[in-house]
Amino acid sequence: xxxxxxxxxxxxxxxxxxxxxxxxxxxxxxxxxxxxxxxxxxxxxxxxxxxxxxxxxxxxxxxxxxxxxxxxxxxxxxxxxxxxxxxxxxxxxxxxxxxxxxxxxxxxxxxxxxxxxxxxxxxxxxxxxxxxxxxxxxx
Length: 139
Description:
Layout: E1 2-4, H1 12-22, E2 28-37, E3 41-51, E4 55-65, H2 67-83, H3 85-88, E5 93-103, H4 107-113, E6 117-122, E7 125-128
Parallel strand pairs: 4-5, 5-6
Antiparallel strand pairs: 1-2, 2-3, 3-4, 6-7
């Protein structure tokens, strides 16, 4: 089961709006999803979940993204896949993304190698910065 929490975070609102302006394919955006199970114990939480008919994109939002954040998000995606019913049943795919104002120690390259969308912020707008031949990995 997934539950929406209303905990606001700086930057997420701007990210949601900029993604939606650029991507008409996103039908629903939800901030701060929490996956609960086994007596309401928190399994995983994601900053932003973008949903459309074919798949969901779980976005981790950071001011400064480090390589260890990417590894944590990959583990989180595995847990979320089990707890989002449409993904667990194979009706939808779950993709990963990371959005940050700054990336350290090649974190952006590492995220792309892990098959995640990389969003970079500049001037209040976030844009996908992956290479043209990038193919996302579904988790």
